[in-house]
Amino acid sequence: MTKVLLEIQNIVKEFPGVRALDNVNIKVREKTIHALVGENGAGKSTLMKVLSGVHPHGTYEGKIIWDGGECRFRDIRESEKKGIVIIHQELALIPQLSIMENLFLGNEQQKKGVIDWEKCRFEAIRLMELVGLKEKPETLINQIGVGKQQLVEIAKALAKKVRLLILDEPTAALNEEESERLLNLILRLRDDHGMTGIIISHKLAEVTKVADDITVLRDGSTVETLFAASDLITEERIIQGMVGRELTNLYPSRDSEIGEVRFEIRDWVVYSEEYKDKIMIDHINMKIKRGEVVGIAGLMGAGRTEFAMSVFGRSFGSRVQGIVVKDGTEINVSTVSSAIENGIAYLTEDRKALGLLLQESIKGNISLPSLHKLARKGVVNQNEEIKVAEEYIERLGIKAPGIFQTTNNLSGGNQQKVLLARWIYADPDLLILDEPTRGIDVGAKYEIYHIINELAAQGKCILVISSELPEVLGTSDRIYVMNEGRIAGEFTREEATQEKIMKSILQSNRRN
Amino acid sequence: MNQGRKFHLDFKKYGMVIALVVITALFQWLTEGVLLAPMNISKLLMQNGYILILAIGMLPIILTGDIDLSVGSVVALVGAVTSKLLVGEARMPVALGIAIGLLVGILIGIWHGFWIAYVKVPAFIATLAGMLFFRGLTLVITQGKTIGPYPDAYQYIAQAYLPDVGGASQIHLTTILIGAALIVVFLITQLQKRRREISYGFAVSGSGVYTLKLVVMAGLIAFATYWFTRFKGAPVILLILGLLTFVYSFVTEKTVLGRHIYALGGNERATALSGIKTKRVKFMTFVNMGLLAAFAGIVYSARINCANPTAGDGFELDAIAACYIGGASASGGVGRISGAIVGGLVMGVLNNGMSIIGVGTDWQKSIKGLVLLAAVVFDIVNQTKKK
Questions:
Q1: Chain A residues touching residue B200 (CB < 8 angstroms)
Q2: DSSP secondary structure string, A403-455?
Q3: For helices B94-113 and B71-86, what crossing angle results, to 10°?
Q4: In A, residues 8-37, which contact B (CB 8 Å cutoff)?
Q5: Is residue B197 less than 8 Å (CB to CB) from chain A?
Q6: B198 CB within 8 Å of a chain A CB
Q7: Are B291 and B72 in contact (CB under 8 A)?
Q8: How far is A152 from B268, CA to CA, in rounded Å?
Q9: Nearest CB to B259: which of A348, A354, A371?
């Protein structure tokens, strides 16, 4: 066993009314990648805040031993001085500044307060090479994609002479290729530069790929640590530790009763918002039947979200062409309100920016699109509204102190259920779910799949967009594969396999 | 699921009400009882009525996350317009003059609403332009001169007291009748509300506490009524303010439109994706502001009994400050009409109280600035404590 670089001993952290961390013990060995997994609300982020000094010494119990000595960080600066750098899920880059300027933000290359731009540039090029960025150092952050921004964050950490790099959900916003590149970089930094890493992730496949050790957290306590060298690590084994039971079937089974074609989208064409000549969605045709769950698979940037949002009241794109037919007659979907009136609902992939009113209560979030249903002559019946909210909290199993709870304090899974409640109460005929389980834990995922099945059993049409192929395969009756704004393939549940879907994507790439 | 609604003081909600009570008590003591004398209360309402009207219009705009800097200039412009119509040769009927004044306000609201909601000019810039533009128009119309006096009927809104239907007697009967009616309406709506809540099976506060609450509230109304009868009765402006507060509280808190305004301020894109016509909602808040700014302009010019090219200077800041002192959030989505009224009254009491004890306007401004800062700091501290 190599030397232990960081030891977390009996950490207890309490917030008013909640014990967020309850006796956490972790040993991170030097020059290894240590993965931290657990359901949402298991305490991973809180632990990292304790470790990096966001929650200063004195606000928690227990000890942090770093390189043999106890640490009492008062703020982030102190932990960074020791070489502990954390990269949060929401990147801390300034979009209007260049890569170079961002790299040395707060760590400026200066002499007596005057910035040494030559040294800055020289260092920036060296660091960017290290992480595999080929852009010019002067390129602005808002001109590069999320994947490359993530690399800038890592380069920034390297500039601070990092010894322990903590990555919180580093690949949540990346596509598979970018994720792959990032994970390989982390491994390379471990091997060539002796860096130690902690990675927090929901994606168990990538955890098994990069981690040397895996610690599982549940309800604020450490459950176990698995060692890749000695233990047999599989996704099932990790899930077992996370949920405390064996999850035999990730996707609840369902007997689908599929009826006639209800919705049909014909020759759907959408152009880009920024560049009016750039075609984003190219003649898409799609049919959805009564009681059917239709999946749309594809890589990031395939145009799936853009397609769904353009159908939902032209919420994306310009120069939208094509028609939507419901039960044989064309319907008006030119505005969001007319799309809703005609029975279409869209649950966004970005629940914080495009879905929730974070300062508003659960009740107000559920009723938002349906207030007119609760109102007479424009006056909302608030008692009825309370009744509805209580009903949906119960029905979808939303865990919250009550319906007046604001949604910013809820976990990701419960936030997602609030949005589901919103759209189920709106009573649509076609429910489009865009990445319905992104960033939520295994238990809540299962419950959401269950809700999807229930809705289908009621005869609703469901369209599921997901970047996780197993999810598309596990939930859908039929699957469309999208690539570069076009339909690249169509499979029934029986035909579809991950290999076939990937192959159809690659083939459609080659045709171009 | 419904925990019994226990009685506990919500500081965020009632903090400013408490502050208002404390400030009032302080000045009542400092002024040796002059502040709350019936005559002074009427004066205080007349002096601050137009700010309160502006604050009522400003709050929905602040709720949607915008701001309107032009209202001071609109106050001046509308005053100038009505003076042209009602003073001198023109001598239009007063009602017509007021109607045209209000129409001017609506047109200004449409103007701002169009640029802000549909062309997406930031409200700060569009209304800053409006502030300069309408101030300029005022100077053009008045040719830089003060125009007055207005006909008596025009001054009525701002300066008069309710006519006494009782005639000869010492007691002001109209005020008493209105007070009694208020108590009855209050009791009926409260009882109905409780009955509906019970019929929905919600937990309600115990009947003892409930009765106490009703009695205290009814008592307060009765006392206020009695207090006003001690001097000429209730001023007309009080009735107007009461009505506006009631209507706008109702609209913002109980109607679909009101809920859309709050939602828009909370998360504009999420609200649009819920099928709400966000542009129209935004547009409406500015049209409404134009209307109320015009109304404030009429009340103000009626009070000072002339149209003045520099009228309304800085009113926009007072109205905005009233909203923030009253608990509205600068980022939108949070705030109440009653809060804005309390915020406006806090400033009014400060102004009035300081004037009585002889503090100069120089210091008055500084102190108001500090109060605004203190109110917002109080809010922020409260919120971080909650986390």
A1: 383-384, 386-387
A2: TTSBGGGS-HHHHHHHHHHHHHHT--SEEEEESTTTT--HHHHHHHHHHHHHH
A3: 150
A4: none
A5: yes
A6: no
A7: no
A8: 31
A9: A371
Cα distance between residue A441 and residue A319, in whole Å: 39
Distance, in Å, from the CA atom of B67 to the CA atom of B343, rounded to the nearest integer, reads: 17
pLDDT tier at B359 (50, 70, 90 boundaries)?
A: confident
| Strand ranges in A290-434 using DSSP code E only, listed in sequence order | 293-297, 318-326, 329-331, 344-347, 375-376, 379-380, 430-434
- Is any Cβ of chain A less than 8 angstroms from the Cβ of B271? yes
Dihedral of CA A232/A237/A238/A240: which sign?
negative
Neighbouring residues of A302: CB distance < 8 A, sequence distance ≥ 6: A482, A483, A484, A485, A505
Please report the pLDDT score of residue B9 as a whole number.
Answer: 52
Nearest CA in chain B to A358: B266
**In which element (H, E) is residue B253 found?**
helix B236-254
Q: What is the pLDDT of residues B81-123, one digit of tens each?
A: 999 999 977 788 999 999 999 999 999 999 999 999 999 999 9
Tokens 């930094």, residue?
A189
The two most distant CA atoms of chain A are separated, in Å, by 75
Contact B251, B257 (CB under 8 A): yes
Quick check: A359 and A408 in contact, CB under 8 A?
yes
Q: Is A149 left (phi over 0), alpha (psi -120 to 50) or beta?
A: alpha
Cβ-in-10-Å burial (0-12, 13-18, 19+) of A153 comes to buried
By CB neighbour count within 10 A (0-12 exposed, 13-18 middle, 19+ buried), where does B303 fall? Answer: middle
The first and second tokens of residue A96, run together, are 């209007």
Looking at the complex, report in whole angstroms how far the Cα of residue A354 sits from the nearest Cα belonging to chain B.
4
CATH 3.40.50.300 intervals, chain A = 4-243, 249-343+428-512
Among B251, B274, B331, most A C-beta atoms within 10 A, so best to mutate, is: B274
Q: How many Å lie between the alpha carbon of B256 and the closest alpha carbon of chain A?
A: 5
Cβ neighbors of B115 (< 8 A, separation 6 or more) are B121, B126
The verdict on a CB contact (< 8 Å) between B266 and A357 is yes
Question: Topology of A4-243 in CATH?
Answer: Rossmann fold (3.40.50)
Binning chain A into helix, strand and coil, the percentages to the nearest 5 are 35, 30, 35
* pLDDT one-digit tens code per residue, B190-201: 888 888 888 888
Task: Indicate whether B242 pLDDT > 60.
Answer: yes
Q: Residue A198 in contact with residue A28, Cβ under 8 Å?
A: yes
Smallest Cα distance from B333 to chain A, Å: 8
Please write the tens of the pLDDT for every residue from A193-244.
Answer: 889 999 998 777 888 889 999 998 887 888 888 888 777 777 778 877 776 6
Q: Check B270 against A357: CB less than 8 A apart.
A: yes
DSSP structural state of residue A291: T
Q: Do A336 and B272 touch (CB under 8 A)?
A: yes
Q: How far is B266 from chain A (nearest CA, A)?
A: 5
CB atoms within 10 A of CB B149: 13
State how far the alpha carbon of A498 is from the alpha carbons of A101, A174, A481, B51, in Å. 42, 19, 11, 66
Strand partners, A140: A98
Residue bearing tokens 């159908």? A311
Chain A contact present for B255, CB below 8 A: yes
Q: How many CB pairs under 8 A join A and B?
A: 91
Kindly write down the DSSP assignment for every residue of A465-476, as one continuous string: E-S-HHHHHHH-
* Cβ proximity of B301 and B157 under 8 Å: no
- CB contacts of B277 in chain A (<8 Å) are 335, 337
The structural architecture, per CATH, of the domain A249-343+428-512 is: 3-Layer(aba) Sandwich (3.40)
CB distance B254–A364 less than 8 Å?
no
The pair of structure tokens assigned to B118 is 């549909």
